[in-house]
Amino acid sequence: MIRTRFAPSPTGYMHIGNLRTALYEYLIAKANNGKFILRIEDTDQERLVEGATDIIYKTLKMAGIQHDEGPDIGGEYGPYIQSQRKNDYLEYAKQLVEKGEAYYCFCDKDRLDSLKGDEGIAKYDRHCLSLSKEEIEQKLKDNVPFVIRQKIKEGKTTFIDEVYGEITVENEEMEDQILIKSDGLPTYNFANVIDDHLMDITHVVRGSEYLSSTPKYNLLYDAFGWDIPTYIHLPPVMKNQSEKLSKRNGDASFQDLIDKGYLPEAIVNYIVLLGWSPSDNQEIFTLDELIQKFDIKGLSKSPAIFDITKLTWVNSEYLKKMDFDAFFEMAEPILKECITKPYNIKKIAEYVKTRIGTINDIPSMVDFIEELPEYSTELYIHKKNKVDESICLDILQKSIPVFENLENWDNESIYNAIVSFANEIGMKNAAVLWPIRTALSGKPTSPCGASEMGELFGKDETLTRLKKGIEKLS
Ligand code: GLU
User: What fold characterizes domain 84-234?
Assistant: First the structure.
């Protein structure tokens, strides 16, 4: 059975690249009737951030990327927490010591510092590898602080990555890395191997920054005699050609995007495309469709550039498709904040639904409704409709009696009245609708047409705005 895991370190926010990793792991598992596991890698106590695990947990829940097992936390599966599995790791490290694949190291900080070269980097010189059994036992008895290091054997290590292909590393380039730290906790490098094995993980998906450590992990798997998982390393998500998307340059986390009004489903849909292409050109997918279509063959090793414009487009497609009641539930409080006059808020929601990128676009789109904004008469000039300020003035003046005499004040009646008025004065509908729309909105664009606005505002406000237009143009 295919088993994947998302193994984030709790650093306090969910980077888009991490969420993409989680999504791919989830899809690989689900596409193969497998299981997806969430494991919080918190053994680096110095990097721990309060509340970070909660953020990861909630983000995945919101994104619909649900894990399939874990400790019971009140009726649902919680994540596995690495620090709570502390004892296992030491036992495994001791097994490696027994096998001659790892060794105790008692070197203190001063000694290690003295090994550092000009660049401040030290490759451990294997000083403790030559300690005798008796010396080791004595130091352990004396409670001398120790770490356990992996003994990297000679030769070279080769493995296949599903995205990057075959990779070979000379073992002498690798350091005898620490497996167990002096606080008794495993390093990430050790814990992830043990956990991946104990959790029967078959596919490891993670950032390409781990490619260079993977040979060390493989040596550990070999030392234990365990199966090596399938590796899928992913290129970074970039802000542009040269900079990675990072916390510093904004929009890097799931939460940033939620705050900007993007829908969780749209974010998930967009990020699946950051480094993966389907065999056809489909771009909008439900999670179920993705489970059907996702295939690791579509993954690319070139870094993906995060394109907020594309995300906005994906989001607008989701908004268009969204059930109206669900949309209204989100939009209503925003609309009510912008519009206090007794206009038909539901109708306005219908108009904006198909025209916004995110719900955060609503305020600027409806800002002309409560009060007519100040505007320049240049707005009346429209080359394609062949109208300028003086033609618009004429149209508006002549339209006043049409509206004053109109008995049924609804969209259709208003529209029909404008059309017959256009006929009467021998002008195209568009040319007549333009100045009316402009006078009613005071903006170059609006979420609905002239007659819809007329219906919304009612007769009095419509006439007031048209007269205001006449005044401005006179
Ligand atoms: N804890 C690592 C991280 O957050 C995970 C790497 C892995 O998936 O093995 O980057």
Answer: Rossmann fold (3.40.50)
